[in-house]
Design a protein that fits this description.
Keywords: Dioxygenase, Iron, Metal-binding, Oxidoreductase. It is built from 4 helices and 10 strands. With 215 residues, it is an alpha+beta fold. The structure holds 2-oxoglutaric acid and fe (ii) ion.
Length: 215
């Protein structure tokens, strides 16, 4: 896969902070690219968010930390999740040093599209993201909220219908949902595509589990 050719090395220096409770070394964020490889020294302070908890990434001599970024989350169609992380302010009397290498695609032309890789969209799997160019991606990078995906709005909600629920024998759940009345002065517009079986004859029983579901 050609999406790691561009590499950016960033060295961080976190000086001793006398009041570490009042600030952070690096605020909560998700790396935008494909992968980040981080080498940290023995001081510590890197944390990843796991559920609602911040978990320390303890320094292990010789070990590297590999972060999944937004692009890999989108290319993997959510098989891998971009990890929210931060660095605490350094309360120790020695500086903390870390080195991050950010891996990104180098193809940045108007015809170079990124998105869920087609190989992952077999067996009826639906793309959670639409394709986008790197120009579009970079354009939104600095306007996103920290700790959120670069393309939150590109994420397409996929509703699982009752028929699909029965065909999957409850592997997938039909999702109850609603739309609030819009409080903003501008109208809200959304477009929904409903996918359904075409065969509707009295003898068409191609849907495994459907008959069971109706009994
Ligand atoms: O200093 C670290 O351990 C992590 C730095 C980081 O998260 C980043 O550069 O994106
Ligand atoms: Fe980071």
């Amino acid at each position: 896969m050609t999406c790691l050719e561009s590499r950016l090395l960033v060295a961080h220096y976190y000086p001793y902070c006398p009041q570490p409770d009042l600030t952070l070394g690096i605020g909560s964020h998700m790396d935008p690219g494909v992968l980040t490889v981080v080498l940290q020294d023995q001081v510590g302070g890197l944390q990843v968010k796991h559920g609602e908890e911040w978990v320390e990434v303890k320094p292990i001599h010789g070990a590297i930390v590999v972060n999944i970024g937004d692009l890999l989350q989108m290319m993997s169609n959510d098989e891998y999740k971009s990890v929210e992380h931060r660095v605490l302010a350094n309360p120790f009397r020695e500086p903390r040093i870390s080195i991050g290498v950010f891996f990104n695609p180098s193809k940045r032309g108007d015809a170079d599209y990124f998105g869920p890789v087609p190989e992952l969209l077999t067996n009826g799997k639906v793309a959670h993201y639409r394709d986008f160019t790197m120009a579009e991606f970079m354009g939104r990078l600095f306007t996103r909220e920290l700790g959120s995906l670069v393309f939150p709005e590109i994420q397409m909600p996929v509703g699982i219908s009752v028929i699909f629920l029965m065909m999957s024998n409850d592997e997938y759940k039909s999702v109850e949902h609603r739309v609030l009345a819009t409080p903003s002065p501008e109208p809200r517009i959304s477009i929904t595509v409903f996918f359904n079986p075409r065969k509707r004859g009295g003898t068409d029983y191609p849907f495994q589990g459907v008959s069971e579901g109706f009994t």
